[in-house]
């Protein structure tokens, strides 16, 4: 079984986000970039399936600038077998990304696509669902447990009311939630081995897919600053404080 894992290069989760002075977006210059945390979970799950003998190959794919190769090398160091970089300098929307991934899936013919449920830079949570629709494959979003048996996969997913278990025929698309696993740290020997693993580069323009944006960002603004907390001496003072705050709101 072959598993395809899309990964995205995003601003590191530990870096404080700053909005550009002109409000055109988030400042990225000279800041640490890393693999999207939900995608790390997807890579970990795919590698675990291969280590268990369920999968024979794990392919990581990223869509972005040349620097995204570093993100792919991180996936290779975690245990993926090879990587594909679809190079573009444009900031792509979920539908364009899903169309590119459909093309890659058509070329590689994976049995399973495992990807993060969303990216922490835009929080769209759309690409996996769009890819499933374009491929006409079954989908299971927000997976907290994945079990593959033969030509089917059983996924436990988190919903508002608790847990839901789905069984799907392969091929299928799965998106990962936080509680699926804990991603491993890549050891130094594996980081060195990753440099020798194959990484194919494809120009996005060569795929014949329209990447024109459908949305226009009017402005980006930082969230309002939180008001400082206040100490009170008694329950009565707390109740009165809450009443006064309610009147202000």
UniProtKB/TrEMBL annotation:
**The protein's assembly and partners:** Heterodimer of an alpha and a beta subunit.
SMART domains referenced in this protein's UniProt entry, alphabetically: ETF
Q: Which InterPro entries match?
A: ET-Flavoprotein_bsu_CS, ETF_a/b_N, ETF_b, ETF_beta_N, Rossmann-like_a/b/a_fold
| The name this protein goes by in its record | Electron transfer flavoprotein subunit beta
Key words, A-Z: Electron transport, Transport
**Family indicated by similarity:** Belongs to the ETF beta-subunit/FixA family.
Which function does this protein serve?
The electron transfer flavoprotein serves as a specific electron acceptor for other dehydrogenases. It transfers the electrons to the main respiratory chain via ETF-ubiquinone oxidoreductase (ETF dehydrogenase).
Under PANTHER family, the record lists:
ELECTRON TRANSFER FLAVOPROTEIN BETA-SUBUNIT, ELECTRON TRANSFER FLAVOPROTEIN SUBUNIT BETA
GO function terms (MF aspect): electron transfer activity
The cofactors required by this protein are: AMP
Q: Which residues form the Electron transfer flavoprotein alpha/beta-subunit N-terminal domain?
A: 23-211
Does Electron transport show up as a keyword for this record?
yes
| Pfam family of the protein (one) | ETF
Instruction: Name the domain of life.
Output: Bacteria
One GO biological-process annotation of the entry reads: carboxylic acid catabolic process
